[in-house]
Task: structure prediction
Amino acid sequence: MLNDVTVFNICEYLSAKGDKDLGEDELRQLLSEFFCDKNSDVERFLKEQSIELLRKINR
Result:
């Protein structure tokens, strides 16, 4: 079984200022394309809660 994997740093996307390739909109787009067949809770967390959690942690 071969899987395509992409790794990126969510914090870099949220902290990017003035970079047209990074930012919250781009991060949300990337996360919307993520799926996890084995654990729907992981998928739901990334798509619905991860950004807000990082904001709380980084205050």
Summary: The longest helix spans residues 24-32. The chain has one domain: 10-57. Residues 10-57 form one domain. The two ends are 41 Å apart (CA to CA).
